[in-house]
Amino acid sequence: MRHVGQSKWGLVGTYAFLIIAAAIAVFPLLWVVLSSFKTSEELARSPLQLFSLEPTLEHYRKVIGEIGFLGNLRNSLMLAGASTLITVLISLLGAYGVVRFFPRVGRQLTKILIGTYMFPPILLAIPYTVTMVKLGLMNSYAGLVIAYLSFSIPYAIWMLIGFFQTVPVGIEEAAAVDGASRFRVFWQISVPIILPGIVATAVYTFINTFNEFLYALLFITESDKMPVAVGLYSLQGSEVLDWGAMMAASVIVIVPSVIFFMAIQRYIAAGLSEGSVK
């Protein structure tokens, strides 16, 4: 009985700790959402006050109607979607080729691929900018997507190699004996098996490209082409920062992302657990 009581109190303590940790993690997001409904006077007078005495939608009207922030959001979704789609397609072929055709050099190759992340983005800013100017891709989405692919593809290949290593070779050999081509084995046998891993890789790539700021700031100069990260940055005034507009724009960006992430989190968890088997 004593042991059962200790286990019960230990479980209560664990849940209490997790609830407190979750509340601390959620508080900044909750504060941003509630602050977006405050008037400019309330934000200036009592910024730490959670609830507004006079809730208003003036900041949302300004961000959507006057600033056109939804256009920036659309640009980011388009850039992140295109980059993610191209990255996943290329990385699937690359990772499968490494695992099935070059297994001996695969380990060294993965080290080289992940080694590309040793270089901070700011270090490559000038070479990338010079290259895009010479190619005539400045202020274009094509140049920005190419820059994103150079960072996302190596990491995506590295992630997918671990997932393909979990696919039993016997299943592919049985399909080949039945007359399936190599591409059919890849597309109809291996890819469905690692689908959770593909989802996890796609989500990781999408989030990274969606939140990217440096190259978007360097390559895009027209306001109607700016992605959301640069759009948020442009809300800063030279002398006065419009906190209400910043809060509303942040909610427009963050809340849909949180809802999307919560909806697919089970696929991400399944993908990460499968990829960690080897």
From TrEMBL:
Residues 73-264 form the ABC transmembrane type-1 domain. SUPFAM superfamilies: MetI-like (SSF161098). It is a multi-pass membrane protein. Pfam families: BPD_transp_1. The chain crosses the membrane at residues 12-34, 77-99, 111-130, 142-164, 185-207, 243-264. GO terms for biological process: transmembrane transport. It comes from the Bacteria. It is found in: Cell membrane. One of its GO terms (cellular component) is plasma membrane. Its main location: membrane. PANTHER family: INNER MEMBRANE ABC TRANSPORTER PERMEASE PROTEIN YCJP, MALTOSE TRANSPORT SYSTEM PERMEASE-RELATED. This is Carbohydrate ABC transporter permease. It comes from Actinomyces bowdenii.
